[in-house]
Amino acid sequence: MDISPSILIVDDHQSIRDPLSAYLSKFDFYVEAVEDGKAMRQRLRERGFSLIVLDIMLPGENGLSLCRYVSEHHGIPVILLTAVTEQADRVAGLEIGADDYIVKPFDPRELVARIRSVLRRSATQMDVDADDGSGTSFHAYLFNGWCFYVDTRELRDPSGKIVGISTAEFHLLRALVENANRVLSREQLLDLTQKHGAISFDRSIDSQISRLRKKLEVDTRQPRMIKTVRGDGYMLTGSIKKTKAA
Fold first, then answer.
1. Cα separation of 167 and 212, whole Å?
2. What positions does the domain Response regulatory occupy (predicted)?
3. Which of 10, 34, 134, 157 is deepest in the core (most CB within 10 A)?
């Protein structure tokens, strides 16, 4: 049975894919490589991967769009490869669910270190999600008719329909439900949701709140669940019930 972490490289340049695949294989990783988003989607339908190394500048569907798709439908950690040095583009990647990024050209040894770091964080988060410290598997938060399953990262609306959320939206919603009816500043939300070593941009919380409201609220102009407390931050209001699996 294959127990090595499995890495999928998505890059349209064969001169990068092939040497990088060979290099990562030396570090006890099972590695596959594809050239574009279409091939990535097909491979994800066929098998699971531990982590995806994803180039932003791809022909057809770009890496940011693909990163959002992975976050919402597969929950696999993503490291973005980018030649773009603009801060806004790096922030955009982190906001839509990327776990880390590395700027081209890069030392492949640094990528190995980042892969290992992301895999360690992912494994730790899975352990935390599965156990609340009491030895009982955690199940869900119930609020305003919605059901938020922390262990499976699944959000269901009052009709029972699954609503897709990105990794960033998952961490933000978890911070809000765990601190329901309490005002959280942007700085507090960053502390509760950002990945270790990530660059902090407090205004990025505003855009994440906006996207989450579009999924939860009937009228985003007059939100009833995620309230803005002017000058202070945000607050999830209402009755929150925490349940556990039997």
1. 12
2. 6-119
3. 10
For the chain, give every domain's residue range: 6-129, 138-244
Is the pLDDT score of 131 beyond 70?
no
Judge if the upstream peptide bond of residue 108 is cis by omega within 30 degrees of 0: no
Q: Which CATH architecture is the domain 138-244 placed in?
A: Orthogonal Bundle (1.10)
Radius of gyration of the chain (CA): 19
Topology (CATH) of 6-129: Rossmann fold (3.40.50)
User: pTM for this structure?
Assistant: 0.58
- At residue 197 the predicted structure's pLDDT band, cuts being 50, 70 and 90, is very low
Question: Distance between CA atoms of 104 and 146, rounded to whole angstroms?
Answer: 42
Token output for 172: 């933000």
Cβ burial, residue 132 (10 Å; 0-12/13-18/19+): middle
Q: Is the pLDDT of residue 59 over 80?
A: yes
Question: Crossing angle, helix 202-216 and helix 186-193, to 10 degrees?
Answer: 80
Question: Which of 89, 63, 74 minimizes the C-alpha distance to 10?
Answer: 63
Task: Name the residue among 67, 118, 109, 71 with its Cα closest to residue 89.
Answer: 67
**How big is the chain, counted in residues?**
246
Q: How far is CA 49 from the centre of its chain?
A: 15
**pLDDT per residue as tens digits for the range 150-189:** 877 888 899 888 888 877 788 899 999 989 899 999 888 8
| Secondary structure element (H or E) that encloses residue 14, with its range | helix 14-25
Rounded Cα–Cα distance for residues 155 and 146 (Å): 7
